Amino acid sequence: MTILILVLISIGVSLDTFALMVTQGSLMPKIKFKTVLSYIGVFSLWQIIAVLGGNIIAKYPLGLYIKETLNKDYIFSAVLILVLGGLVISKTSKKTKFLERRMDLIDFRNVHYLAMVTSLDTLLVSFSLTLSSIGLTILMIFALVNTTISIVLGMYAGYAFGYEIKNKLRYLSATILIISGIGIII
Asked: Membrane-spanning residues where (predicted)?
């Protein structure tokens, strides 16, 4: 697996967080440095948990079995990435009403929920890439750097432009993941 595929996968996963932060940024009356740091801390914690969880799952009997039997030429890893792309598309295509209103206080219970939900993508990717013999350190660095960048840029983009670009970002995320999955197969 090339470094380009790894970078594309990490960008695809981080665009989901970026889209979520666009929504959060659109709700804020003013973006404070403390607020951004709080989001980075919470999301980074969940990303670390997801990367470690995916790594642990891949190294136990079921993961070892999959690695030895089903993951020839990284096909199983590619299928997982393709499934993740499909899940992002299905999540985006659901039409939900969104009331854009100012949020004066941060609801940390909601922030933890959002971080946990977005980290499920990272868990699946971490499991897939660990099966493909990508090291834990590399996965952790990519997850933390992409999360930080996604939160900062997403909040400011949402603050400046509103939440309308969220679905376009998610479709872009799904497209990148699907291209990455096909790239792994090829």
From this structure: 6-24, 36-62, 74-90, 111-131, 137-157
